[in-house]
Design goal:
The protein has 310 residues and is α/β, with parallel strands linked by helices. It has 2 domains: 189 residues, Alpha-Beta Complex (Spore Coat Polysaccharide Biosynthesis Protein SpsA, Chain A), CATH 3.90.550.10; 68 residues, no CATH class. It is built from 9 helices and 11 strands. The strands form 2 sheets. Strands 1, 2, 3, 4, 5, 6, 8, 10 and 11 form a 9-stranded mixed beta sheet that branches. Strands 7-9 form a two-stranded antiparallel ribbon. It starts with 9 loop residues before the first strand and ends with a helix.
Length: 310
C-alpha cells in the first residue's frame, strides 16, 4: 500500500528502458551507486532491454536488481509498463539510460513528493553535455500549439510561448507545470496504476506527455524542481537513427492528436504535419547546406508515410 502520510519515508523503484545505449547505460547505473539515499528506500533498479544489438545490456549484474531482456523492441511505454510491474515501491522513477544522477538528485525529489501528498509527479533540472539547462517542460498541447509547433513558429523568439514546449522559460526556477519529460520522471505508483500506466499504442515519443495529461485530467499535479539536477545527454540512444527518430516522433504527434483532439483539429494538424512541415524542414536543411539533414528528412518522411499506409 502506498504511504501518503506527509514526511514519511517512501520506497522507490527505478525503471530504465535500454535500447542500444552503449556505455551510457553503464554510466547511468554507476551513478546510482553514488546517490544519497537519505529519506527514502531504494527498493529495486530494473532495466528493461528492448532487444539491443550493441551488447549494452551485458553489464555487471550487481548494478541492478532485475534485467528483462525482450526479444524484440517493444517501444518505450510498453517496456516501462513491464518494468513498473516488477516492483511494489511507493514511487517509480522512470530514468533514461543517457541520464546520470547527482548525489542529491533523488533525495531532494523524493522529499518534495513525500512532504506534499497533492504532488503526483516530480521532475528535476536536466543539464546537457554543454552545461546548459535543458528546456524540458511542456504545456498540455492544444490544436493551436500543435499546429504552431509543426510549422516551427514556436522557435521564433517571442513566439515561443505559443507552442506547447516551454522554450521561452529558462527552467531556472521551481514551479508547477503540466509535464516534465520522461528522462527523469518520478511519480506515485498509485497514480501510475490508477491511469493504467503508459498507453502502449505510442511506440516512442509523447507517451510521457499523454501520461501527464491523463494524470492532470484527474486532478494530479506535476512539480519541476530547479534546486537539484541530473546530467542528460539528450537523444543519446536515438541520435544515430535520425530518420527513424523523426518518423516515430511525427507518428506519435498524429497519434496524440487523434487520441485527444478529433474532427477538424485532427485534420488541420494532419495536413500541417504530413504536407507542409516536410517542405519547411527540407528548405531549412537546404539553407544549412546539410546533405545529411536533407537525407534524414526525406527518409524519415518516407518511413512515416509507409507506416501510415500499412
Amino acid at each position: 500500500m502506498t504511504n501518503d502520510v506527509p514526511g514519511k519515508r517512501l520506497s522507490v523503484d527505478i525503471v530504465i528502458v535500454n535500447w542500444n545505449s552503449g556505455e551510457l547505460l553503464r554510466h547511468c547505473l554507476e551513478s546510482l551507486t553514488r546517490i544519497d539515499r537519505t529519506g527514502f528506500e531504494l527498493a529495486r533498479i530494473i532495466v528493461v532491454d528492448n532487444a539491443s544489438s550493441d551488447g549494452s545490456a551485458n553489464i555487471d549484474s550487481s548494478l541492478m536488481t532485475d534485467l528483462v531482456r525482450n526479444t524484440e523492441n517493444h517501444g518505450f511505454g510498453r517496456a516501462c509498463n513491464q518494468g513498473a510491474a516488477l516492483g511494489r515501491a511507493d514511487l517509480i522513477l522512470l530514468l533514461n539510460p543517457d541520464a546520470t544522477l547527482e548525489a542529491a538528485s533523488l533525495t531532494t525529489a523524493t522529499r518534495r513528493i513525500a512532504d506534499d501528498s497533492t504532488i503526483d509527479i516530480v521532475g528535476i533540472e536536466l543539464i546537457g553535455e554543454d552545461g546548459d539547462i535543458h528546456r524540458s517542460c511542456c504545456r498540455i498541447p492544444t490544436i493551436g500549439s500543435l499546429l504552431i509547433h509543426s510549422l516551427g513558429i514556436d522557435r521564433i523568439g517571442a513566439l515561443a510561448r505559443f507552442g506547447y514546449p516551454m522554450h521561452e522559460w529558462t527552467h531556472d526556477e521551481t514551479r508547477f507545470v503540466d509535464h516534465v519529460i520522461g528522462a527523469f520522471y518520478l511519480l506515485r505508483r498509485r497514480t501510475f496504476e490508477a491511469v493504467g500506466g503508459f498507453d502502449e499504442r505510442f511506440f516512442v515519443y509523447l507517451e510521457d506527455l499523454d501520461l501527464s495529461k491523463r494524470i492532470k485530467d484527474r486532478g494530479g499535479r506535476c512539480l519541476y524542481l530547479a534546486d537539484t539536477s541530473a546530467r542528460h545527454v539528450g537523444g543519446g540512444t536515438t541520435r544515430n537513427v535520425r530518420a527513424r527518430r523523426l518518423a516515430y516522433s511525427l507518428r506519435s504527434r498524429l497519434q496524440y492528436t487523434a487520441k485527444h483532439h478529433r474532427g477538424a483539429g485532427l485534420a488541420v494538424v494532419g495536413i500541417a504535419t504530413l504536407l507542409v512541415e516536410p517542405l519547411i524542414r527540407l528548405i531549412a536543411a537546404a539553407a544549412r547546406f546539410s546533405a545529411s539533414d536533407v537525407k534524414a528528412v526525406t527518409v524519415g518522411y518516407a518511413l512515416l508515410y509507409g507506416s501510415l499506409l500499412r
